[in-house]
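TODO from last week: model Claudin.
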Amino acid sequence: MSIRRGFKNSSVVEIIAFFVLLIANGLSMFAFSTTSWAYIDNKVFNYQGYGLWRICATTGSCSLLDGTRSEWYMKVQACGIFGMLGINIALLLVISYLFVEWWQKDIELEVAAILCSFAGAVFYGLAVSIYKEEMPNWVGFRTDLEFGNSMTMAKSAAVVSAVGGGLLLYDVIKKRDSLTV
């Protein structure tokens, strides 16, 4: 099936949900891979940018965090992974639902996309809340610590993913109501 025919055979709500989840996916990738969840803004510490996986200095040198023994940081990383996967899988399911003829209009696929988009939103929300709670204690520089763009992107990915799931849920309810009438 062509992309044009997939869009032509889909409802407006499904198409909007597709684009919303596409945006959530981009925000998620940005949040997951960049080093600006938090900053330390002082001249003593050259390590200014904290991400999920590394700390990077303004000079360009980085230290890895992917093997950290800090339990709270591992929880944030795990929630970030599950959040990103939830959003990615939701988008993949919507793509399959809209454009793969074999799965076209399979209601179970749409329900799975709803669950994945909400799961992605919940996990990114958990990652953000744990990070905001624990990061000031971890770095010990409460006055110099600022939360950055990557965390904002993670929050945005969670909200946008929830909106996409809500649109798909609305679509499923609307279809169910039209079948019972």
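Done. The beta strands are 38-40, 47-50, 54-57, 62-64, 145-147.
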